[in-house]
Amino acid sequence: MTASQTAQHGIFHGHVDAQKLGVTPKKGRLVPLRTRDEIRAATELLDAYVVEVPAVFASAVLNVIRIAIPNIRDVNIQHLRRVVHLSFLPEHLQQTFIASAQTWPSPEHPDGEARASDPNPTEIRYLLVSPASLIASQDLVAALAREPPFSIANIVPHVITIPVPALAPTSAEEAQQWSEKYWSISYKNTNPYGPHPSLLERNQAGIEPYAGTWLALAKVAGGQMSGRGIGANVGCAIVHKERKEHRVIAVAGDARWRGTGDSKPCREEPGNVMAHAAMRAIGMVARKRVRLEQSLDELTSDAAGQIACDVPLSPVENSFFSVDNLPSTGYLCLDLDIYLTHEPCVMCSMAILHSRFRRCVFENAVKATGGLMTSKESPSVENGLGYGIFWRPAELNWKFLAWHWENE
Amino acid sequence: MDEEERQYHENFMREAIKMAELALSSDETPVGCVFVKDGEIIGRGMNETNKTLNGTRHAEFVALIQILSKYPISILQSTDLYVTVEPCVMCASALRQYGIRAVYFGCWNDRFGGTGGVLNIHEDPSIDKPYPVHGGIFREEAINLLRRFYVQENSKAPEPHSKKTRELKLLESSV
Ligand SMILES: [Zn+2]
Ligand SMILES: [Zn+2]
Predict the structure, then answer these.
(1) How far apart are the CA of A275 and the centre of ligand 1, in A?
(2) Residue A231: nearest ligand to its CA?
(3) What range(s) does the CMP/dCMP-type deaminase domain occupy (chain A) (predicted)?
């Protein structure tokens, strides 16, 4: 291979030539992982009070509520529509309310005289009062009963308690589902519990056409190690993508059975844990960066490299390790993407986070050991560990986008 | 813990602190550790993320590399770790997978801690055997080393940073 060919290697402009890589791209699609907070938001309910009122009195009653429950300012229930027409409520609530409808006298308008724009005086609305935790039901009934329209119509407020989503929906579809199930929900195009939908969409569109190729390459890396009995059939590829340019920075397969020190390959569990594919690939990126920063001609293989296995051990690993295609201004794995044949374990997930990766895609979810997936189920080896390490900004000081690849 | 036992653990934590001091003098985040088998130190490590440009080269990994170049992996099942700062989530998981017997640490790591500081990787559901942890041994010394590191880095910084942002940056990047 000539010098100029070497320099070209691992860099693709526009079209990624899978044939040149010796792989057949996988066909499929990316499914964004749900964050732990999104799961929580999707499952956490709270009890809330609802009361029937004539439409013309809705805002007057909201005022009464604001005074009776001063704490209501401190709770975020903006995703719950406060004043709702019967037809916008879920089926089962419609039936409940129809069954318990109260007979309101044709009322005096609160301001004394009716206007043409006023709702029909006999129109009824259902008003979401507050979370039940803020006031006792009998106190609420008493507070409402003292004021119009209840006081003037001599009607006992009919307060019922229903479960509603405690947190805002994270997508329009979710808002729709909840509206059919719990209460009329409003959706603003934001996501306080995970990546913003438009950011996620943009990133997904940018990498989806190539993800199948990188996953195929990751599989080759895993196959070259397992084929020689020195690792599990697990691999990964680290890619830098900027606009139309793709650079394959490192690929690595698992080397846990390689043996350490003088020992021959050894299949005794757990093997050499630090030789998991992601750890090895991250180590190779670091070595390439050291080589670049210190202008070394070649890599000095040290004792650490033999144990951590962060030096190339197969032809495909070597072909990408040997070229200096790492953008020189970088830091750790900032701006890099990692594609894995399998969901990384907790150790590898946190290594990806420590290394400041930008995006992560994996093909096979691994319930017993994986560190990225989340679930409604309580954590277990069978249900999945539920750590969602990619997006826990309140606890861990970095976050990255993560997708599960679904084969066609 | 009786007096004799306490002294036994403090003795090894002092050795871990020496490694953290070495890290400090090499401009690495001052975290140090020793692995102990049958009362003997079989491996020593300090954080080497700056030297290696590898964000995963924590003190525990440096020591593990040293140990595995001499001993079989299975030795870890009868080995204890003494580390000045609580192992991070990554190291906590590595230790559990390797089958470490017990972990003793100095101060808690409330940014990345994997054995109580943030997550409980040592005892959560897992296919790997859980391990006991004991925190707070020479906690003040461990924190003081980190403080000295911030001051040292501050004095080198080309433009003044507030101590608070430095602390944050350190905890983000290195521990
Ligand atoms: Zn792993
Ligand atoms: Zn660590």
Answers:
(1) 8
(2) 1
(3) 205-380
Q: DSSP for A266-278, please give it.
A: ---TT--GGGSHH
Counting ligands in written order, which one lies closest to the CA of residue A348?
Answer: 1
In a structure prediction context, what are the per-residue pLDDT tens digits for chain A, which is 408 residues long? 333 343 357 888 878 888 888 999 999 999 999 999 999 888 899 999 999 999 999 999 999 999 999 999 888 899 999 999 999 999 999 999 988 888 887 655 555 555 555 555 578 999 999 999 999 999 999 999 999 999 988 899 999 999 999 999 988 889 999 999 999 999 988 888 999 989 999 999 999 999 999 999 999 999 999 999 999 999 999 999 999 999 999 999 999 999 887 778 888 889 999 999 999 999 999 999 999 888 776 655 677 899 999 999 999 999 999 999 998 788 999 999 999 999 999 999 999 999 999 999 999 999 999 999 999 999 999 999 999 999 999 999 899 999 999 999
CB-based contacts of A191, cutoff 8 Å, min separation 6: A38, A170, A171, A197
CB pair distance less than 8 Å for B125 and A355: no
Look up residue A325 and give its two tokens. Answer: 């295609």
* Residue ranges near ligand 2 (ion) with Cβ within 5 Å: B 58, 88, 90-91
pTM of the model: 0.85
Regarding whether A353 and A239 lie in a shared domain, the answer is yes
Residue whose tokens read 């390459």: A217
State how far residue B4 is from chain A, nearest Cα, in angstroms.
35
Closest-CA distance, B7 to chain A, in angstroms, reads 32
- ipTM, two decimals: 0.91
Q: Say which CATH number the domain at A21 has.
A: 3.40.140.10
Interacting residues of A148 by C-beta distance below 8 A, sequence separation 6+:
A57, A60, A110
